[in-house]
Design brief:
The protein is α/β, with parallel strands linked by helices and 351 residues long. It has 2 domains: 265 residues, Spore Coat Polysaccharide Biosynthesis Protein SpsA, Chain A, CATH 3.90.550; 80 residues, no CATH class. It is 30% helix and 26% strand. Strand 16 and strand 17 form a beta hairpin.
């Protein structure tokens, strides 16, 4: 098995800690290593370093090299700029086709997820690899812990192989009432955005379901062959449709399956999501450094300074040398609106 880690995101919902030149996946969100480094570490018992690949945006290549000095330089796949997961994966498949056989199994993971039970994660790769070798496109469905409205869902059908269920449909992020209904049925899982397939199977799926994409990647492969892997492919890559792999491929594919998993997963998509998996005191408050809370519960403070909170509940306070964010946990997903606003002003140093 080989692994492809997608590490080109901008992490705008983690502003002000996550910035354009140092986004979320490179930050030490929990512990002493970054999310990207943790993703690689959890793979190493199963996959050796020379079979781990990272696809990232051109402006983040040096960060990848700095954080993963043992990763061979050839194992960094460069997007000229971020598009979406379907173009990102298709570009990587074209890159890997020249090195591996069509039957090689390929695991695809985002770089910025938290998985607390690594043993359970590694065990879930066993049925995934088995079914991928049969030509199936496999995804991992997280057993939902609550009626989340920030995740997409997968509705599963009958068991089609040991530990693998059929996929009935993918559902975009629901409203609260719909999410609660999903939970009651017991057949819906959070869409983790993690996949497993053979190189040949996913390439065939692109040819069948998004044929314009392999046409573009074939032209990119010709450029690589003539001018080398450092050649400028931006003109061709810009023609890619900006579409997620879920919508472009997984929603339409016939040979697909979902493996239900429960290993302490979080996509850490917002400050609230990080607060939910952080250690707190008896009143549910978390201080990254030192602080105190008076008549205050459920607060999350990321600051190097002593911070006092009085009479506030469920608030996030994030401090960096040049910015401070204060928001309710429930509104933490809207932090990206601040980044969008800053882009329209002369505050480029803040994004």
């Amino acid at each position: 098995m080989i692994a492809l880690i997608m590490a080109g995101g901008s992490g705008t919902r983690f502003w002000p800690l996550s910035r354009q030149n140092f986004p979320k996946q490179f930050i030490n969100v929990q512990g002493s290593t970054s999310m990207l480094q943790k993703t690689v570490e959890r793979l190493l018992p199963k996959i050796c370093m020379h079979d781990i690949y990272v696809v990232t945006a051109a402006n983040q290549v040096q960060l990848v090299k700095q954080q993963l000095p043992r990763l061979p330089e050839f194992n960094i796949i460069t997007e000229p700029f971020g598009m979406n997961t379907a173009p990102c994966i298709a570009l990587s498949v074209e890159y890997l086709k020249a090195r591996y056989a069509d039957g090689e199994v390929m695991l695809v993971l985002p770089a910025d997820h938290v998985i607390r039970d690594v043993s359970a994660f590694l065990n879930s790769l066993i049925p995934a690899e088995r079914e991928a070798k049969k030509g199936r496109l496999i995804t991992f469905g997280i057993v939902p812990e609550y009626a989340a409205t920030g995740y997409g869902y997968i509705e599963a059908g009958e068991e089609i192989a040991p530990q693998v269920l059929g996929v009935l449909r993918f559902k975009e992020k629901p409203d609260k009432a719909t999410a609660e209904q999903f939970l009651k049925t017991g057949s819906f899982y959070w869409n983790s955005g993690m996949f497993c397939w053979s190189i040949g199977a996913i390439y065939d799926a692109f040819c069948k379901l998004l044929p314009e994409i392999p046409e573009i990647t074939a032209k990119i492969a010709d450029i690589w062959e003539v001018k080398g892997l450092d050649a400028d492919i931006s003109e061709q890559y810009a023609k890619m449709p900006r579409i997620p792999i879920d919508i472009g491929i997984m929603e339409k594919a016939e040979q697909r399956g979902v493996i239900p998993v429960n290993y302490g997963w979080s996509d850490v998509g917002s400050w609230k999501a990080l607060a939910d998996i952080s250690i707190t005191d008896r009143d549910g408050n978390h201080f990254s450094s030192s602080g105190t809370a008076l008549e205050a519960k459920g607060n999350f403070v990321q600051s190097s300074k002593f911070t006092a909170i009085i009479g506030l509940d469920n608030v996030c306070v994030i401090e960096t040398p040049d910015a401070i964010l204060v928001c309710s946990k429930e509104k933490s997903e809207e932090v990206k609106k601040v980044v969008d606003m800053l882009k329209t002003k002369e505050n480029s140093n803040l994004i």
